[in-house]
UniProtKB/TrEMBL annotation:
Protein's UniProt keywords contain tRNA processing: no
UniProt-recorded name of the protein: Diguanylate cyclase/phosphodiesterase with PAS/PAC and GAF sensor(S)
Domain EAL intervals: 29-283
UniProtKB keywords: Coiled coil
Keyword Ribonucleoprotein recorded: no
């Protein structure tokens, strides 16, 4: 999409973030990379929040923060468009740090406003996870915002953990010591073996939405979903089904004792204000 490359900005400090050999450095990429860098400076990124629901009680248990780029010309650009380039260029590191700070800061505001405690999940890219100072960055975010560490959930994908699993395990233990929770995102799509899973100190598995999509018609997807739920239970992990779009899917999962769900059936990712109006205000009412 050439529209994305319209930025006339002169290449600037963004070079600093470029890692040699991490992707082809075309003229378009340099312009786009620069636009991304400026977006961070100009505060053009926004977080949307997708509710995570306990289907048994109907209550909101947490949200997942999902980034969008509020581009002055293009409007809201989804992460699938710019996260890959941010990852290739290393810009994902400062962007990801902004995400953690913004998400934790938002949660703090909600807690201070008297809304019931919920969890806040953020996605971590491989490049972030492999930063030497990730643990101290997370620690600083927790200190600066003052949120209870246990409310902060970091989502990693299986493949991220398999890249250098010894190092991953060590980093995860250091994160866990801070009190934050770790979740494996898009679970079932990667290469981790079931036996391997118990080596990772994760508290939650998120069943990838590709298994949920055809849950009602596809025996294999149902078998896989059942297996993941059972396995998570045996390992003492929570399980969240992603991409729940219909009531039959939700009902099926509930019969399998998977009651934590996220998906369009409940809500797409929405701005903070909308989450307050449509979810948090009701929850506050329920506390009284
Ligand atoms: P993810 O972490 O697996 O997030 C779930 C994605 O599925 C979101 O897409 C969400 O809008 C979408 N989704 C949720 N429910 C449904 C549903 O019922 N049906 C369908 N079809 N889709 C649903 P989104 O927001 O476009 O994000 C895509 C991916 O971009 C995320 O996948 C995550 O990997 C990445 N991403 C988003 N925000 C961040 C971020 O702040 N940092 C990093 N590193 N990656 C991010
Ligand atoms: Mg996620
Ligand atoms: Mg996912
Ligand atoms: Mg993902």
């Amino acid at each position: 999409d050439t529209a994305m490359y319209r930025s006339k900005e002169v290449a600037g400090g963004s070079f600093h973030f470029y890692h040699e050999g991490m992707g082809r450095r075309t003229v378009e990429n340099v312009k786009y990379e620069n636009a991304l860098y400026r977006a961070l400076e100009r505060d053009e990124f926004v977080l949307f929040y997708q509710p995570q629901i306990d289907y048994c009680s109907g209550r909101l248990t947490g949200v997942e923060a999902l980034i969008r780029w509020n581009h002055p010309v293009e409007g809201l650009v989804p992460p699938g468009i710019f996260i890959p380039l941010a990852e290739q260029t290393g810009l994902i590191v400062p962007i990801g740090e902004w995400v953690m700070r913004e998400a934790a800061g938002q949660l703090k505001k909600w807690l201070d406003a008297g809304y019931p405690p919920i969890s806040m999940a953020v996605n971590l890219s491989a490049a972030q996870f492999e930063q030497d100072d990730l643990v101290s960055v997370v620690e600083r975010v927790l200190e600066e915002t003052g949120i209870p560490p246990g409310t902060f959930h970091l989502e990693l994908t299986e493949n991220q953990l398999m890249r250098d699993s010894e190092l991953a395990i060590e980093t995860m233990h250091r994160l866990k010591k801070l009190g934050v929770h770790l979740a494996i995102d898009d679970f079932g799509t990667g290469y981790s073996s079931l036996g391997y899973l118990q080596k990772f100190p994760v508290s939650t598995l998120k069943i990838d939405r590709s298994f949920i999509r055809d849950l009602m018609d596809d025996d294999d997807d149902r078998a896989l979903t059942d297996t993941i739920i059972t396995m998570a239970g045996n390992l003492g992990m929570k399980v969240i089904a992603e991409g729940v779009e219909t009531k039959p899917q939700a009902d099926y999962l509930a019969t399998r004792k998977c009651t934590l769900m996220q998906g369009y059936f409940f809500s797409p990712p929405i701005p903070a204000r909308q989450l307050e109006k449509e979810f948090l205000k009701n929850e506050k009412g329920m506390l009284k």
